[in-house]
Amino acid sequence: MLEAIQRITPDLNGKGLKIGVVMARFNEPVCHGLRDACLAELKVLGVEPSDVVLATVPGALEVPLVLQTMAKSGRFDALVALGAVIRGETYHFELVSNESGAGVTRVGLDFDIPVANAILTTETDEQAEVRMLEKGRDAARVAVEMVNLHKSLRG
Questions:
Q1: Average model confidence (pLDDT) for the chain?
Q2: Whole-prediction pTM value?
Q3: What is the per-residue pLDDT for 90?
Q4: How crowded is residue 91: how many other Cβ atoms within 10 Å of its Cβ?
Q5: Which pairing describes strands 78-86 and 19-24: parallel, antiparallel, or unpaired?
């Protein structure tokens, strides 16, 4: 049975892809770590630096609007959301985490474009710092893989 199944294997070739990246500036040291890791990994995957557009916004709640603008432009093959929401003493953490995550997801679905969500949601600064490099690299890989999968499925 398995031998008759068509399989699509992961493709991490970023050559020729145009990637839009939106980075929140709130929790800036963590966001810079996410950004640097993501951009470095995109280059490793073959995405030319000149094919990457980086926009920054004040915080995670503003990320979806700029992703939406990028998606509407038709200039990009995939988008990446970068940010860090770290729990504080109020309910604001839940609001920002939930709404930014829903907004990022909605952009991908509404505009039929892969969006890698690397907005960290952690309990502490230390947790965010531990995760930022791997999550930044992972966002680049997700964006490239999903573009290639999307193209493959479209024929």
A1: 96
A2: 0.96
A3: 78
A4: 8
A5: parallel
